[in-house]
Amino acid sequence: MDLNLNGKTAIVVASSQGLGKAIATQLVKEGTNVMLASRSEDKLKAVQTELEAEGKGRVSYQQTDITKKEDIEALIKHTVETFGTVDILVNNAGGPPAGTFNQLDDEAWQDAFELNLLSYIRMIRGVLPYMQKNGGKIINIASSSIKVPIPGLILSNTFRLGIVGLSKTLADELAPHNILINTVAPGRIATDRVTHLDNVNADKLGKPIKEIEEMFKETIPLKRYGTPEEFANFVTFLVSDANTYMTGQAYLVDGGMVKAI
Ligand SMILES: NC(=O)c1ccc[n+]([C@@H]2O[C@H](COP(=O)([O-])OP(=O)(O)OC[C@H]3O[C@@H](n4cnc5c(N)ncnc54)[C@H](OP(=O)(O)O)[C@@H]3O)[C@@H](O)[C@H]2O)c1
């Protein structure tokens, strides 16, 4: 199978750690030129150095707060100036805070909308002029909450479903330009985000974090958390030339955790 990612250009948002970093790493190994983006310049620099040692695709970064319109414009401008175009967009962001309905005010809802949905919309709008010329691939990272709501994560449960509606509608609108768009939803992939959420649950239930992890692992048929590399492998396939017919879908990478059909 030829992925044919060599020489393509990808923007991977929220790539200073976790899932975004793992996706950027796989793409660089395949020879893709990757633009990293997140708020922390120190972390981005370190990831750039690490990935450049892979020696295939070129790596650059743009310090970006993805909730800011002007930062998004600067990110796309820097990408096109550095690599010439955009072939692949991986939309991603930090997770919204945990909380139940009565713990969250208008500001929390507005912040989560801007971080977890509006940023995706703005990024897509920004890359379309480039993708409309030669086709492209867009991946929107969501959460298993698109299938089964997660207790205590109402912001995620609400806005991730917006991503699915957006992707499904755009699959139709963008198909004439040969732009394929899919949602990929992690279950429990071992990153700082999941450790943070396990700590929140540990505090809430007054149990050690190890017990919380074991509780979740019991619900996963494969009996373990996934690795960021396992998640990135699937995204890499979807954005590659090996995928020519899958669009408008929402895929889980969850070790079988979600029981919904
Ligand atoms: N890991 C899982 O199993 C899992 C499950 C369900 C959903 N998810 C969702 O998938 C996404 C990625 O998860 P992860 O596990 O990789 O999380 P993570 O380890 O917490 O990484 C989050 C990334 O987002 C960046 N970020 C946060 N706020 C940003 C902003 N305003 N602008 C630009 N970048 C920003 C962070 O970099 P800076 O701090 O440098 O900005 C970091 O690179 C999150 O939305 C998470 O909720 C993950």
Name the bound molecules.
NADP nicotinamide-adenine-dinucleotide phosphate
Number of strands: 7
Count of distinct structural domains: 2
Spell out the CATH superfamily of the largest domain.
NAD(P)-binding Rossmann-like Domain
Euclidean distance between termini CA atoms? 29 Å
Keywords, separated by commas or semicolons:
alpha/beta, 261 residues, 8 helices, Rossmann fold, 2 domains
What does this structure look like?
The chain is of the alpha/beta class and 261 residues long. The chain folds into 2 domains: 9-188 and 227-253, Rossmann fold; 191-225, no CATH class. It is built from 8 helices and 7 strands, in the order E-H-E-H-E-H-E-H-E-H-E-H-H-H-E. Strands 3-2-1-4-5-6-7 form a 7-stranded parallel beta sheet, sandwiched between helices. Helix 2 links the parallel strand 2 (33-38) and strand 3. The longest helix has 29 residues, at 106-134. It is globular and about 50 Å long. The protein binds NADP nicotinamide-adenine-dinucleotide phosphate. NADP nicotinamide-adenine-dinucleotide phosphate binds at residues 14, 16-20, 38-40, 43, 64-67, 92-95, 115, 141, 143, 186, 188-189, 191-194.
Short characterization:
The protein is an alpha/beta fold. It is built from eight helices and seven strands, in the order βαβαβαβαβαβαααβ.
What topology emerges from the helices and strands here?
Blueprint: E1 9-13, H1 18-29, E2 33-38, H2 41-52, E3 59-63, H3 69-83, E4 88-91, H4 106-134, E5 136-141, H5 154-174, E6 179-186, H6 192-205, H7 209-218, H8 228-239, E7 250-253
Parallel strand pairs: 1-2, 1-4, 2-3, 4-5, 5-6, 6-7
NADP nicotinamide-adenine-dinucleotide phosphate is lined by residues 14, 16-20, 38-40, 43, 64-67, 92-95, 115, 141, 143, 186, 188-189, 191-194.
